[in-house]
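seq:
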Amino acid sequence: MGWLESIMKAIDYMEEHLLEDLSIEEIARQANASAFHFHRTFSILTDTSIGEYIRRRRLTLAAQELSKTNCKIIDLAYKYGYDTPEAFSKAFRRQHGVNPSEARKYMGRLTFYERLVIQVKLKGAEPMKYNVLERESFTVTGIKREYSLKNGENLKGIPVMWDQVNADGTSGRIEKLINGQIKGLLGVCVDKRGDGQQDAIDYWIAAEHQGKLPDGFSSLTIPASKWIVFEVHGPMPEAMQKTWQQIFTEWFPTSGYQHAGTPDLEVYPEDNPAASNYYSEIWIPVK
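struct:
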C-alpha cells in the first residue's frame, strides 16, 4: 500500500466509524503507522488535530440532521458523542455561531466541514536539500516530558516546554553537554506505544552526549538507522513548519521510503533562531 493510500484508508475508517468511540491508536493502525507518527503527519497535512477533525465532522453532520429532521436536540447530543445537551449546545455554538434551536430556524450562518481529501504535490516548486547517511546508535542527554496526543495536547504543550527551558537556563546547560556529531539542541519525539501507553509521547529537549550523566538529566539511546537529513533555512518556527509540510506533501509520497517508526530529530544549532538565514535540520529515520 502506498503512502497516500495509507492516509486515505485511515480517513475512510474515521468517516465510517464517526459516531463510535474512536482512538488515535486504532485510526493509525489503518495507515500501518504508530499513533504518534500518524497524528503528526495528519496535523502537518491538514493544520488540525485528529480530534478536532472528528469534532468538526460530527457537528457538521449534526447540523445537517437538525435541518432535515425533527429529531430532539437531546437525542442528537447523545448520538454525536456528548454526555449532556448543554455540552452539545456549547460545542455546536462554538463551531456554527448559533445554538441548535436557532440553527433549526436559520441555516445561513452554519459552518460545514466536508469529508477530508488529501492532495499531494508530485513535484515541489522549491527544491528540497537533504543528505542520506547511516549511523550506529548514539546517546542523547537532556530532559523529557510526556504529552497526550488527544485533543492536540502535544502541539500545545511542546512550544510551552521550549519557552520554559529557554527562560530558566536549562537549554544553556544542555548545550554545554554537546560532544557528539550533531552540533545543536535536539527536539526528540518518542512514541510510547512500545511501553503499552496508547496516544502518548515523550518529548525530549536534549543534546548528543557521551559521558557521565549530569544531575537532573536523563539519557536516551537513539537506534542505529538510515537517516534523511533535511536542510531548513529561515526563521523559527515558520521555516521548520514549512519544511515538515514539504516533507509530507512532496517528498514522502514519491521517495519510496517509509518512516522507520523510531524517534526523529529536529536540530537547532546555537545562533539567532529569528534570523532570516538561520540554519537548522530535520533528521528522519527511514526504511
